[in-house]
Amino acid sequence: MKDNAIVFKGTKEGLYIVLKEEMNFADIIQQLEIKIKPSKSFFEGAKIVNFKGKSLSLKEYNELVDILQNQYGMQFLGDYEALCSNIAASKEEEKNQAKLEPVIKQGQGDEEKAVFIRGTIRSGQMIRSEGNIVVLGDVNPGAYLEAAGSITVMGKMRGTGHAGTQGDYSAYIAAFRLEPMQLRIGDIVTRPPDGKQYKSKVPEMAFVKRGMIIVEPYLGKR
């Protein structure tokens, strides 16, 4: 059995016990003993937030909680419903990640190059294009879009967008809901005022005018 079959992941709330999906229940119990028993005094009194990584039946869940609390003296803070919710959220994220791929790479000419993304762009993800970027979904805070051309988001734009990366000040950034962490066109940058969260109520477009980034209702630019 590999050493990382069970991993203890620390957070400010306590420890998560990450279980490999392919492990059977007997192996989980065996590995817990191998991991914890030699250092029982270290783990005694530790706060366990919950399990992660593997679906468990309610019976299996309760048996593991009983072992951790009664055999090893740990404090268990989680519940079965939270585990199921986390597993479902992880599977949904994997599903969305699988959808996160360019469905059209480029057009005939350089001016028509575009990357189309179907799905949510999540925190930590970066999308680059030598032309335009079109997102059929939301862009979450912490996500980054970088396009030599323009950026269009058919959902909420709450991340960072950089259009006109090669100095094209005619580029724009448009979204159904434009609520960015930061916008940049060429080398011109704008961001919401400190401590304030900008909320749009209509589709909007950001573009350069008189050396500044201006945001106006998108329909007003038609």
UniProtKB/TrEMBL annotation:
Assembly notes: Interacts with MinD and FtsZ.
Keyword check for Cell division: yes
Protein name as annotated: Probable septum site-determining protein MinC
Pfam families in the record: MinC_C, MinC_N
InterPro entries linked to this entry: CAP/MinC_C, MinC, MinC_C_sf, MinC_N, Septum_form_inhib_MinC_C
Family (UniProt): Belongs to the MinC family.
Domain Septum formation inhibitor MinC C-terminal: 116-215
Keywords noted in UniProt: Cell cycle, Cell division, Septation
Gene3D superfamilies (alphabetical): 2.160.20.70, 3.30.160.540
Function summary: Cell division inhibitor that blocks the formation of polar Z ring septums. Rapidly oscillates between the poles of the cell to destabilize FtsZ filaments that have formed before they mature into polar Z rings. Prevents FtsZ polymerization.
Gene expressing this chain: minC
Domain Septum formation inhibitor MinC N-terminal: 6-74
Origin species: Lutispora saccharofermentans
